[in-house]
Amino acid sequence: MAVEKNPFEKIEKVNTDVKEMTQDLPGVDVNVNPEQEEDMAVDVDPSTGEISVDLNEDSGTVLASMKDFYGNLAEYMDEDTLTDLSTTVLDNFKADQESRQEWEQTFERGFDLLGLKLQETTEPFEGACTATHPLIIENAVKFQSKAAQELFPSKGPVKTQILGDSTPEKEQQAKRVKDYMNYQLTEEMPEYFDETERLLFHLPLIGTAIKKVYYDETLGRPISEFIPIDQFHVSNLVPDLRRADRYTHVIYRSSNDLKKDINAAMYRDVEVGEPEQEERGMITAKAEQVMGLSAYDEQPYDTTHVLLEQHLYLDLPEPFNSPTGEAWPYIVTVDKTSKQILSIRRNWNDGDPRYVKREHFVSYKFVPGFGFYGLGLIHFLGNLTMSATAAMRALIDAGQFANLPGGFKARGVRVVGDNSPIMPGEFRDVESTGIDLNKSIVPLPYKEPSQVLYQMLGFLATAGQKFADTTEQVVSDATNYGPVGTTLALLEASGKFFSAIHKRLHKSQRDEFKILARINNEFLPTAYPYDIIGQSAEVFKQDFDGRIDVLPVSDPNIPSNSHRLAQAQLMLQLASQSPPGTFNMPEVNKAVLAAANVDNPERFMNAPQQAIQQDPLADIMSATRGQPIKAFPGQDHNAHIAVKTAYLQDPLNGANPIMKQVEPILMANVREHMVLRFQEQMG
């Protein structure tokens, strides 16, 4: 599992043989040689946390490693302060965890309705039907497929737009940003597509999904990671992450990975003990149970360190406290088992006078609920799926009883052999005492599957499908002869539910790209060359200066290819029925091909040709070959008008239905000659 590498952790420690301080400061743990007290003076800047140590004349002035704005402040705090902060973080996490226990329990029963696990049962009888109606899982997979196609097209998910006045310089900058970020998300960040697909599967089921975007110092590149909801805890009372006072990311780290982080100065080197049995979240544990998966039962495969990375507001003690007494945003990481604080880092931009919290997480919502957590298909279709499942099982069990009936037989009647069902065409001997066999064997009155129940099952399935997505039904019911506008209206009306969700996805993905652009601005070198298919390209650090807005390539108003293609067909139909020259037909045809997902549609279209001055018959021949014709000043306009009009009126030539496509071109040319003739006469 990828893990957070704080995107502002570039720490340059200052090595010195002299102790930094001569006396204990509140909230700072220092060990000082008393003999050096009279040779030192300590000056602490409370706003930045910068500590300057004035040594004797020979030693000069040095700055402690706290001068790094995004450095680990826990290195310079005393243990009592760290213990109090650790208690605060753990109490906050426990409160947020307990506040949503009932919400998590909803998914324990909901995951059973997905029907992903094959099972047998003896209740109410052995061999009873255990099938689950696929209403929820079918719509979840359909949503994942549609959303992935829109959010991650083959050419890349990013497009750009210029903020402010457009200049050639900004246009080149926008192209560089677009090309590089598409290359970055498709080539340099191979996990992006997989993590996005995982998110799009969890989102329709649970209703809320979290993405984390950060810079990984180990890999030397940004990471976009999907965070399961049981590894992210936030109070349901907050509307969004920007206004949340705190939220916690639960990070699982092996002993080896934790040592790497400590050696990289990401965390302070403290004793955290041995890793313990991995704690599985309730939702993850239930999902694994449904899939038939389980963790290893023996050490050391299932042991891990559990770290709590909490983003919260703190008013730290001196010398880190706010001069105004306000709480500022920080990121505190605590080892859950040992309760040791591993790091405390500032979470606002250096020099920001408003101390605005930096965002590293993006929340995706299926349907916004009554608080932070959204609503998913388990909430909307859970009860409906339970009813449909019960009806389907009853129909199957009724058919099984009707095909293999049972009943009673008189005590004195014995069937030779066992009581296994009789195969077709088989006759068995019966030992009877002379009693009428019809009276000795009485079958139970099993009924055929109920037609009313069958219709009810169809109603339940249709109702659930109509709620989730009715676009397929509209397409299947439509005919090839229906007007394009009517089909487009039906698609829009049927896809309103997904269209609204698609707009939310578009907005969340835009927030994710903005975080990625900010990371590029902070960590890219001044010039970064890279190679793509067929060419070499280059992007610059200053390209991500905020003048170019980064957007998803998806259109929030067109949620599917069917909408896009129907819109293109409407445009083509309107252009075909309009007078020649009203529409730019090459561009219209190019838009239709693009809507049909045809790559590089320009290669199918002829390069535009310039009309040349010709005689009337040559103009007619050019028009029949699809070449442009035009009226020029100084031509014999009367001859052009007479010849072309005669050609159009000739039933064997221009008036022939075969030449119908040439007629509007020649008529437009005749009108041009008439206007030029009048202009020259007036001149």
Task: Tell me about this structure.
The chain has 683 residues and is of the alpha+beta class. Helix content is 39%, strand content 15%. It has helices spanning 79-98, 101-110, 135-151, 168-188, 191-206, 255-263, 282-291, 377-403, 437-440, 451-468, 471-477, 484-494, 496-523, 561-577, 585-595, 616-624, 637-649, 663-682, and strands spanning 41-44, 51-54, 61-63, 158-162, 208-216, 221-227, 232-234, 246-253, 276-277, 303-314, 328-335, 341-346, 361-365, 407-409, 414-415, 430-431, 441-443, 527-532, 535-540, 548-552. Strands 7, 8, 9, 10, 11 and 12 form a six-stranded antiparallel beta sheet that branches. It has a three-stranded antiparallel beta sheet with strand order 1-2-3, with no helix packed on it. Strand 11 and strand 12 form a beta hairpin. Helix 3 (135-151) runs antiparallel to helix 5, helix 3 (135-151) crosses helix 8 and helix 17 runs antiparallel to helix 18 (663-682). The longest helix has 28 residues, at 496-523. The radius of gyration is 37 Å and the shape is flat. The model is unreliable at 1-42, 46-66 and 296-300 (pLDDT under 50).
